[in-house]
Amino acid sequence: xxxxxxxxxxxxxxxxxxxxxxxxxxxxxxxxxxxxxxxxxxxxxxxxxxxxxxxxxxxxxxxxxxxxxxxxxxxxxxxxxxxxxxxxxxxxxxxxxxxxxxxxxxxxxxxxxxxxxxxxxx
Length: 122
What we know:
This protein is mainly α. It contains six helices and no strands. It is globular, with a radius of gyration of 14 Å. The chain starts with a helix and ends with a helix.
């Protein structure tokens, strides 16, 4: 049920015109890809805020708007994690195979933080 809620969230964002079809498709692919390739199951409870932020970030990137900075103290915690290499590998894979473009460094940091949180709370 929780996966359906995440899909519902994406549907609302698309229907409201907050995100376009391209971003919707990319995020739907990301959810599926993370599960099929990495066995990371994104749900409303563990990935709702992540997917919402990412949808807005992709929209800002498409519109050439400035991407907001992440709190460096938070990111420093990621750099200390035992799972750092694993989440970097996952990030590089999804950047190449889902996003098909290099994302701004600040978005990379945000995604790494979220992947770490999701992996640690698995």
